[in-house]
Amino acid sequence: MSLVKLTGVSVRHNANPVLHNVNFAIDRGEIVTIVGPNGSGKSTFLRTIIGALRPTLGAVSRAQGLRIGYVPQKLHIDPTLPLNVRRFLSLPHSVSDAAAQKALEQAGAGQLMKRQMTKLSGGQFQRVLLARALLCNPQLLILDEATQGLDQPGSAAFYQQIEQLRRDLGCAILMVSHELHVVMAASDRVICLNGHICCEGAPEHVASAPEYRALFGTGTQGALALYRHEHNHSHDHRCGHDHAHDPQTANAELTGPH
Ligand SMILES: Nc1ncnc2c1ncn2[C@@H]1O[C@H](COP(=O)(O)OP(=O)(O)OP(=O)(O)O)[C@@H](O)[C@H]1O
């Protein structure tokens, strides 16, 4: 059974339709990335999955007792507030030193326990948010533009950490990102959202889909290939070559264009 399943889900904000007839499921251990232009409903989609928003039509089902870890798009911390990482991880629920340290290590931030939150770099801050999401030992980890503001090497390192987490913890990962060239290489499946699911499939397939190209142009595919090439050299667990790309085959394998 899927961890979360959306069937015919539509969502309105006030009277405005934001999501229309969305069908989606994520299984254990999968990494799924949502891409889409600004205002296309990505955050609304994630908030519906978490249960923070109710669909106006359709149904959301979750595996019983599902544990979800959520890394938000932004988190503002009052710069005048003295708050170190250890105390931050105990908000709102107190956690042990051992649990806090373990979560930080899983997030690649094992040295940050005593640091002030407001003194962290952008990349360190995101890793602490990730550690906080890991405290519940999630079966599904959800990240909303988690690398906003990081430079490209910082983003690439962050997403490699995500892949490592999937290997170590076996959790499924659902993330939103604009950084297609970095994120797509780490994803099993990419969904292109623009109020509805325009197209979905393996990263290379979506990158060549007409619906995707209409929204994002054609420029990202070269960057994707470049990233994948570099990525393979630094990680010998992946296959060491790129697969020849045939747009016609790719399009044939896409599901659900509307
Ligand atoms: N709480 C709200 N009340 C009213 N309208 C909202 C609310 N939240 C979002 N919207 C509207 O719903 C639409 C989709 O917003 P959403 O934040 O889901 O898009 P997004 O794809 O995540 O955007 P971005 O890439 O800019 O973060 C937008 O038009 C937005 O203005």
UniProtKB/TrEMBL annotation:
Q: Which UniProt keywords apply?
A: ATP-binding, Cell membrane, Hydrolase, Ion transport, Membrane, Nucleotide-binding, Plasmid, Translocase, Transport, Zinc, Zinc transport
Q: Where is the composition biased (Basic and acidic residues)?
A: 237-246
Enzyme Commission code(s) on record: 3.6.3.-
Q: Does the keyword Acetylation apply?
A: no
- Which parts of the sequence are annotated with region: Disordered? 234-258
At the top level, the lineage of the source is Bacteria
Q: Which InterPro entries match?
A: AAA+_ATPase (IPR003593), ABC_transporter-like_ATP-bd (IPR003439), ABC_transporter-like_CS (IPR017871), Metal_Ion_Import_ABC (IPR050153), P-loop_NTPase (IPR027417)
Gene Ontology terms, MF aspect: ATP binding; hydrolase activity
What positions does the domain ABC transporter occupy? 4-219
Q: Which PANTHER family match?
A: METAL TRANSPORT SYSTEM ATP-BINDING PROTEIN TM_0124-RELATED, ZINC IMPORT ATP-BINDING PROTEIN ZNUC
Q: What is this protein called?
A: Zinc import ATP-binding protein ZnuC
- Per the UniProt record, the source organism is Phaeobacter piscinae
The major lineage groups are:
Bacteria, Pseudomonadati, Pseudomonadota, Alphaproteobacteria, Rhodobacterales
